[in-house]
Amino acid sequence: MKKIHGVAASKGYAIGKLTLCVNIDDHIQKKSITDVPAELSRLNSAKDAAVEALNEIYRKALKRVGEANSMIFQIHIMMLQDEDYYNTIQDAIKNDKVNAEYAVWQAGRQFSEMFAQMDDEYMRGRAADVVDISKRLIRNLDETLANGLDCLTDRSIVGAVDLMPSETVQMDKNLVLAFVTREGSKSSHSAILARTMGIPAVVGLAGGYGELTDGASLIVDGAAGDVILEPDEQTLEEYRKKQQEFENYQHELNLLKGTKAVTKNGTVIEINANIGHPEDVSMVLENDADGIGLFRSEFLYMESKNFPSEEDQFKAYKRVLEKMGGKRVIIRTLDLGADKQVPYLDIPHEENPAMGYRAIRICLDRQELFVTQLRALIRASAFGKLAIMFPMIISVDEVKQIKEIVEKVKKDLTAEKIVFAPDIEIGIMIETPASVMLSDLLAKEVDFFSIGTNDLTQYTLAVDRMNHTISKMFDSRHPAVLRMIEKTAESAKNAGIWVGICGESAADTTLTEFYVKIGISELSVTPSAVLELRKAVQQVEL
Q1: For 356-378, what is each residue's pLDDT tens digit?
Q2: Which of 42, 130, 205, 272 is the most exposed place for a label (fewest CB within 10 A)?
Q3: Residue 99 has pLDDT above 90, yes or no
Q4: Residue from 487, 534, 15, 483 nearest 226 by CA
Q5: Is the C-alpha dihedral spanning 171, 177, 178, 180 positive or negative?
């Protein structure tokens, strides 16, 4: 028996036999070709098949993991069709007379290394995506390099050097007990998808991965990040008990549906869900959230080749509000820029995009875009309980300017005899140190605050949350961050407005009691975390 430690990526326990996936890097061979047109034809067929498969994966992923997690497959399709990438492969076939598999593998490595060295966090994240699409092309070219996931017939623990997002989302939960990988981190796409799908996972096994053999008996501890190779009977019995306890815990959480998040001394906390697409509403309802605390409206812009029309936006917002049946839906206005770019916005290259031309700065600069979105939002308010939230605020003047534009839109709609709700709540995100320090003044201008702890932590600690070199320094429990949150809550209380948290630390149950204690009245998390957070609130006794 041997214990190998990795990174805990997704909670849960699994006991079973290991199925190792083929590592493409070990099987690529460079071959000389004579029939260039035939090789280019093979490549084109592989590309067409890849695009078709990715479209199908995207549709499947929408139902299983929601829009926010599915957008990656739309990005993969765009990358497959990128001229620079595809021309590099074709040039290698034409000029070097090499086989298509080798040309794709070589281009994939070249572009992956290029992306990995970029300063921009969004572009660095594309390195893994280039590897994913390259592997897909190669497997279409050579069926003997299939990863084995499609051929599983018995329930297994899957092992791989690394699993790409498209591989993870296609896993059959009835056959895949868990997965373990040599590479990867807790914040990788595959780890996020595993948590969303409820598949136990340990990643980043590094050198320990080499000790795993196909067919070996394994225990996967997704909570501790341990993989136990050839466990003895005593260890097996211990983990069978842990498995049962975990299943009982999940059953207990499901029993909380229909209850409220009320502390032992009677304080009620609203537990809402964060979503990125209208399709995600089904997950919100399935997990019994009290409402939607953050609806990221960027999906409309990222899915479109041009600025989405007022009518397209109106239909999307209306659909969500109607599905939520009167529960409050907080929609955040356009938050593009930084790591969320769309070509038609034509934002010039920035050395530090996280602190650049983004979010409300774009909206106030290009007010025609802002007005179009506000008209769609306010029109949709007639079909449910809408609240509108504005991101990246750093001054009172910004809020006053926003409110003037909102009032102008309302007057125009009234003149056009278009019905809308008279009581739309207006709120702002507190995600910059500036907004915290001005929170006493800002609270007089709005109906609520929602604290975005991801960016607030990043800006407070001066730590890029996407930089793996300093990722250990990114700590939402840092005393400075908690003091920022406490100061914001105090300002809200003094002004008589409510305050919530929509960043990832809202789901950190070690902070739940602190949040309740300082006066946070709403927590918004990924839908799958709603019931666990509800349980944590119910156990708080102030």
Answers
A1: 777 899 889 989 999 999 999 99
A2: 42
A3: yes
A4: 15
A5: negative
Task: Give the N- to C-terminal CA distance of the chain in Å, as an integer.
Answer: 46
34-65 pLDDT per residue, tens: 999 999 999 999 999 999 888 888 877 776 66
pLDDT tens string 404-450 = 999 999 999 999 999 999 999 999 999 999 999 999 999 999 999 99
Q: Which amino acids are annotated catalytic? A: 189, 502
Burial annotation 138-173 (CB, 10 A radius, 16+ → b, else e) = bbbbbeebebebeeeeeebbbbbbbbbbbbbbbbee
Which residues does 518 contact at the CB level (< 8 Å), separation at least 6?
485, 486, 489, 490
CB 139 within 8 A of CB 121: no
Beta strand spans in 283-432 (E): 292-296, 328-332, 385-390, 425-430
DSSP 309: P
Q: Which two tokens stand for residue 29?
A: 């061979």
Q: Is 220:227 a contact under the CB 8 Å cutoff? A: yes
Among 53, 103, 60, which residue's Cα sits nearest to residue 77?
53
pTM (predicted TM-score): 0.70
**Whole-number Å distance between alpha carbons of 390 and 384:** 19
User: Mean pLDDT score of the chain, rounded to an integer?
Assistant: 88
d(CA 65, CA 197): 7
Q: How confident is the model at residue 385 (pLDDT cuts 50, 70, 90)?
A: very high
Q: Give per-residue burial for 223-254: e unless 16+ CB within 10 Å, then b.
A: eebbbbbebeeeeeeebeebbeebeeeeeebe
Q: Yes or no: say if 537 and 204 are a contact pair by the CB < 8 Å rule.
A: no
DSSP-derived 3-state class of residue 536: helix
- Sheet with 226-229: list strands edge to edge: 2-5, 226-229, 217-221, 13-20, 156-160, 176-181, 201-203, 7-10
Average pLDDT over residues 103-118: 86
> At 180, which helix (H) or strand (E)?
strand 176-181
CA-CA distance, 347 to 339, in Å (whole number)? 12
pLDDT digits (tens, 9 = 90+) for 285-340: 989 999 999 998 887 776 667 788 999 999 999 999 999 999 999 999 988 765 55
Kindly provide the residue ranges of all beta strands, DSSP E only, lying in 258-327, ordered along the sequence: 270-275, 292-296
Give Cα separations from 306 to 51, 74, 278, 365 (angstroms). 21, 16, 20, 18
Rounded to a whole number of angstroms, the CA Rg of the chain reads 25
